[in-house]
Amino acid sequence: MLRAGIVGLPNVGKSTLFNALTRSRKAEAANYPFCTIDPNVGVVNVPDARLDALAALSKSARVIPATIEFCDIAGLVKGASQGEGLGNKFLSHIREADAIVHVVRCFESTDIHHVCGTVDPVRDIDVISTELILADISSLEKQQIRIEKTARSGDKDARMELSLIDLLHPHLNSGKPASTLEIPDELRQFLKRFHLLSAKPTLFACNVSEDELVKANELPAVVAVKNHVANQHGSSVVVISAQIESDLNDLSSQEAAEYLSQLGVSESGVGTLIREAYALLGLQTFFTTGEKETRAWTVRIGATAAEAAGVIHSDFQRGFIAAETISSDILLSVGSKVKARDEGKMRLEGRDYIVKDGDVMEFRFNV
Fold first, then answer.
1. 211-222 confidence digits (pLDDT tens)
2. Alpha carbon of residue 59 to chain centroid
3. Side-chain half-sphere exposure of 301, counting CA atoms within 13 A
4. Closest by Cα among 295, 293, 357, 284 to 327
5. Which is nearest to 6 in space by CA: 195, 246, 202, 272?
């Protein structure tokens, strides 16, 4: 299962957000740096209104959502790349993640200490980004020595890796993350071999106070983060109130909806964050539905029908014949699979069909 690591400075709300995501109290949330040492890991359901609608249509006995994994990583500080604040250990935890959710504090509070003394979200982003870039520069220099030896023996891949390093070094040294480097197509496949922290896809989460959530997009701090991230990182930004989300853990679904309505908010920010992180990991959903079960299955974007079948069972992929397919939106508008077949809206797709997000699929196979 792919993992999104939650990072940021100490006391920005990472552990509170993790508890909200996982609907648990697994992570300690305290008003001092490094209250999290070992990373907390939790599996999170991906909210999807299509799943419940399909289950209602099929009168399913069981409903199984898609899931992703989140990891709460301890707060980084300036100098982490040099070992400050147990930085080397925490950076290794980030290296194990497939994507990053960078939590940024956008609220003032005299009760919660800020490690830098003042709240400045753009500065905070740059502190973390700089530490990741410095760690990458150090790692790349060490890898280059090994790769140069291999290249001297005539290894073509090693020579391609050196060409990529020649592009990466000046880019990183200028303070830009590896994720923003324009890489020629012939070299792109080699980037993953370097395991660079700043190359990981990143989503930024602006953590605002409870009373500012409804007007969060107008807050100067949030506007500054969105502009900075767009210009320097080319990433997406979501707005959450980690404290509100944590409070929702103690409420039923109906009570939570009523509470959000009173705040003037239509949906939990955590739901948006989970879906954004899911997409950030390069994932999409297809469905199977029937009386026994409606289930959301996870495949990478660009997966074929045969690969989707393999997610369910290797025999489905090995003996793949065809996939009866329809968009969930079309199926829900028609009202039933039987009617969809009668109207010619169900399609038979071959093994090389590229699965689309929201496809409802039924596989034919012979083993």
1. 888 888 899 999
2. 31
3. 8
4. 357
5. 202
